[in-house]
Amino acid sequence: MLPDALISTYCEYKKDTDSIATWLASTAKLAGFPDHLLSSTCKTAGNANGNGGRLKGKARAEAKKKAKAQSTNTPQKQSPAFTSGPKYIIAIKDFIILAEFLLEHSVPIPHSFSVILDRVIASREGFGSKIEAQGENLDQDSVAKHGYFVQSSPHFTALMPNTDDAPVTPSIDNLSNKFHGLAVYEPSEEFLNAPDIERPTRAKDDPNTYEAEAPSSLEDAFFAPVAILNDMDRMRSRVEWIWSNYRAGLFDVTSAAIATNTAIGLVRDMMDDVLPIFDAHGGYHRMLQKFYVVQCLNKGFAIEDLFMENKDNFNYDTYDVAERVYLMAYRYLEGFAAVLEPNQVPIYKDGIFGTYDPSSNRSTKTGLAKFEDDRALVMPYFSELITIVMGLPNWPIEDEFFRGMAQIHKTKQIPFYSVFATQVFLDISYTLKEHVDSGYHTMVTHMNFISNDIKEHFSFHRDLKIVNWPESNDRVLRKVQTSIEWLAKDPSLQVQNKLCQRMGRGPRVGAGHLLFRMSPVMSGLTLYFFRSQYHEIGLSLADAWGSLQYCEHLYNATRQHDPLLKRWTDMDVVRTLLDMDSFYVGSEAPRTPDEQFKNKDRRKGKRVASKAGPRGIKPNAPVHHMFASRYREMVTFSITAEQLDQIIDLSMYEEEFDEEGGLLLGQIEDSKKVEEKKRLREQYNKGIRRKGATGGSRMAAECMIKKLAFALQAETLEFSFPYVQMHRWCWRLLRAVKEACDPLLRQIYGPDYLSNETELPFVVGYIFLLASGADRGKQTMQPLEEATRALEGMVEPAGDFITERVLGEILSIPINVVDESDK
């Protein structure tokens, strides 16, 4: 189910109903309602009473008399029977007897109870009559049961105090969306943005748990999909919004892919609450069929128009209705699942299901033409997925679509989230059109760069080793490189061509890598898989060798010594991405030679350095790191309330708008906000939860997806920065500095001031030592001046190589660097 911090229509309705049951039962017991009478009107998890029915006639009257008599003669204290804390299931139709008992005992009713009750009544009032008006007959038990919500209103109203001074509650809007005639009353935007109304809870010191009885009627089975489909519709719209903005250049493919896959996962969690209701009425596919019929009748179709004598037994004039209720997506999966056989991968000839023309105007097409487009897209993609599921068991990356196909193969059952994933796949295809393979090209470009950079790393470090960088770390790098090379060979196509050869067919033709070309989600998640490891390795490499930290210290010192020195753009970007915390205690760069020398965290090695080494680099992409276990280790993942707080709390970027109103992302500059973000990050790193989290933050699920997409995008530069390459650049700079300062350092400290090249960072320590005069009065600025000239000699021609050439041109991640000191 969804975490408490996320709002969905049906989950809110269920929570509201449970809170009413909880407050009524717990408060009545505290007021003296006898235990055995409560047990006769309720059923517990361990001791259910017969039928859980409501007392009637003489039995009900007698129960009320006994309850009144016993509550009058018995002190209102907790009964020993409650110490075990059982779980009580409260029948909805028994709410009235509890309410009447409270009325007779003049128990005050909290304002929150009134608000929540009104919300529940508004959600269900008249819903059954609307269903019957659409042609579905409800059983009388369902009508009677849920009529009690409406019938209960006068009883509860009598309990309510004068609420003229009560807080004003937000209005509840009637959202009559595309599901005409079956309106669901849901919280408006005003309501969602207003302060939360706390639901009524059980009485103090009551250890028991209470829930309203599980809904199971046909009316419930209709109410649930209306509520869920409305939420899913908003989620679909949000996903389309993400990919429209991806096409416009706002989102990176990895950010869009993670946000999309998380959205599908949230829909899966939403469905967990309602699938048992559907199962009681033949399963969700039967309910989709019923809902489709109701909607078609509402559109003016006759029942005999819906079932044709063609081989599909389907009227394609109703395509739009079927697509909106996910029946089309289900039919595609159902048809594919029907042909699956053990140990046989279904491989189709290219073009056998037709072709899709992305330049065509879909809005003018007939239902049949839209179906043919869908089929031309989904059937080849289904085949790609099942090929990997059956033929490549060690496939390293999965999204929810892939996960669903694996479940279909294993259980022969179609999970509902696979239906939603299928529809999202089609939505993305029609949103991106001819640009749908752009994610694949981005993935290939970045992965080739990573592979080549790792190759350069091994060449650079062939004879350069350090104890801080064991062979096990190099094995990780080699595994990343070989995995990229393996994927580049298109293993899925290799499996298919082997099967074609066995069947006497020729090899498949086409561009190859169909899985990635057709799915920017899979392309984005695959890029995340490799980018995450490359990012982690790069920071570890720089940390082990001290290259970034010591070069930053030297750059800072030379800028303090010569403010007119040309800026080193690449290092300026690194300083911004990693924060000064990664370089200095107190997050403030030292200004004088004495301060630079005394900053103990910047030095390592003998004589002039701490054995602890340089200050450790702190990764600065917390939202990206949140998904590492999900996409690198395939750990089952459902977003938690705490992670929702992290998404909101830890991102160092915020939405901005340009002069024309266009949406931008900018780094937070407000010093108070920055300090608060850093404080929260330190708390999360130490495992300390923010006070009040969660809910502190509550929002609709699709709103969370929007925030997630922005948070991921804001971290894209830091997560994509080539720290492995930056390490090599810094090491070359240290070589140049050592060469420039070597004559002076030999003269002062002798030829053995360095044992080997791995001690190059010590040169920076010697420079600071001499500039500060801390070494027994030996003070000279000459080594710093020589280092300044060496640094300028490298920065002048190529100080922005990574920023401009690598990120801007090769990886298409442009950076607009603004020098605040030049303003």
Uncertain runs? 39-60, 69-83, 126-155, 159-195, 600-614, 691-696
Give the integer mean of the pLDDT values.
79
Oligomer: single chain
- Tell the overall outline: globular
Please give a handful of descriptors for the protein shown.
single chain; about 800 residues; mainly alpha; 3-stranded mixed beta sheet; 35 helices; 9 strands; about 60% helix; DUF6604 domain-containing protein; DUF6604
Give a verbal description of the structure:
- The protein is globular and about 100 Å long.
- Helix 9 (218-247) packs parallel to helix 17, helix 19 packs antiparallel against helix 22 (520-545) and helix 23 (547-561) packs across helix 34.
- The chain has a 3-stranded mixed beta sheet with strand order 2-3-6. A two-stranded parallel ribbon has the order 1-9. Strands 4-5 form a two-stranded antiparallel ribbon.
- The protein has 35 helices and 9 strands.
- It is mainly alpha-helical.
- Helix content is 58%, strand content 4%.
Structure in a nutshell:
With 823 residues, this protein is mainly α.
